[in-house]
Write a structure and sequence with these properties.
This protein has about 300 residues and is of the alpha/beta class. The protein has one domain: 3-Layer(aba) Sandwich (Rossmann fold), CATH 3.40.50. The chain is built from 14 helices and seven strands. Helix 4 links the parallel strand 1 and strand 2. Helix 10 packs antiparallel against helix 12 and helix 11 packs across helix 12. The longest helix has 20 residues. The mean pLDDT is about 90. Bound molecules: S-adenosylmethionine (SAM). The site of S-adenosylmethionine has 20 residues, from helix 1 and strand 2.
Length: about 300
């Protein structure tokens, strides 16, 4: 059964992410982030908002020089690279997409960061538990995990984390009263085979059951509506090239998915939550006590652009 689930997951990820790196470059930002951005101003652009998102994630995880970071579902390697480059951590990312892993490795080589940053084409269930991490980011993977697998997944995360370590789950959720619709059926069949959403309270409860202590929960729903709108606009402005790469059917399907997702975030049937949790350490109380340090560092656009 477990083996079967793995091959289903692999086929689903290949269907979505191995479409072609070049196709995703047509609508994502230059850092190739494929999750909700963080707009610090209402008129902010996508590029800036994605840099702000990566930095927010690193600050929520309180990354410190020399720590080991695991990025589960690392996409094209952006957060792992950002954290290694700007926070001095040793970053390890895993993705189930061979195309993404190939892209990430070439990028890491170009940046000369191969000694501190590594990305592998690997299922998160195959990460070595014998060598736990200080911090774990899971940005946009819970949607692929499957509701029935939440207990095993969060147990895995806990075991991969050192006592006192922090875990950030950033994922799409559905409203409690959400109902199955033909539109959703279309998206699952054509865009996200095997994708599954749950409401935030359910997810957080499964986390708590696996001894992960919840510290902070933040909704970024409005941010995701804007991100999807930006992606759809960029894809549409590259229509000809996109059709050459993936064909008209896939182009139109992706445009519909990005546009309808923006509307769904806007009206609230789906949401995006960042939940920060820790693996309690019986010896010390290491959890952050305030949000102060998230907002006291220099978060200026000029600083982030200089880092990028
Ligand atoms: C929506 S993307 C998010 C990518 C990246 N974190 C970002 O913020 O741009 C989801 C990622 O989860 C990965 N993924 C899904 N299931 C996985 C699994 N079982 N093991 C490892 N990675 C997985 C996919 O390959 C993909 O890289």
């Amino acid at each position: 059964m477990a083996r079967n689930r793995r091959s289903i997951d692999k086929a689903a990820i290949e269907h979505h992410y191995d479409l072609s790196n070049e196709f995703y470059e047509l609508f994502l930002d230059p850092w190739m982030l494929y999750t909700c951005a963080y707009y610090r101003t209402p008129d902010g652009d996508l590029e800036q908002a994605q840099l702000d998102k990566m930095d927010l994630v690193c600050r929520k995880l309180r990354l410190r020089r020399g720590e080991r970071l695991l990025d589960i579902g690392c996409g094209w390697g952006s957060l792992a690279l950002w954290a290694a480059k700007h926070y001095g951590v040793e970053a390890f990312g895993v993705t189930l997409s061979a195309e993404q892993a190939r892209y990430a490795r070439a990028w890491i080589e170009r940046e000369g960061l191969a000694d501190v940053c590594r990305v592998e084409h690997r299922d998160y269930r195959d990460v070595d538990r014998e060598d736990p991490f200080d911090k774990i980011a899971a940005i946009g993977i819970i949607e692929h995990v499957g509701v029935a697998n939440y207990p095993a997944y969060f147990a895995e995360v806990r075991d991969l984390l050192k006592p006192g370590g922090l875990f950030l789950n950033h994922g799409i959720t559905r409203h409690r009263h959400w109902r199955w619709t033909p539109q959703w059926q279309f998206l699952i069949e054509n865009v996200f085979p095997n994708g599954e959403l749950m409401h935030v309270s359910y997810i957080n409860e499964r986390m708590e059951e696996q001894d992960l202590e919840i510290i902070d929960v933040e909704s970024l729903r409005g941010h995701y509506a804007r991100t999807c709108r930006h992606w759809a606009e960029r894809l549409r402005s590259n229509e000809k090239h996109a059709i050459e790469l993936v064909g008209e059917r896939a182009y139109r399907t992706w445009l519909l998915y990005l546009t309808s997702s923006s509307v769904n975030f806007e009206e609230g049937s789906i949401n995006l939550y960042q939940t920060l949790a820790s693996r309690p350490d019986p010896a010390t109380r290491t959890v952050p006590t305030t949000r102060e340090e998230l907002y006291t560092v220099d978060r200026s656009a000029a600083r982030l652009r200089a880092l990028a």
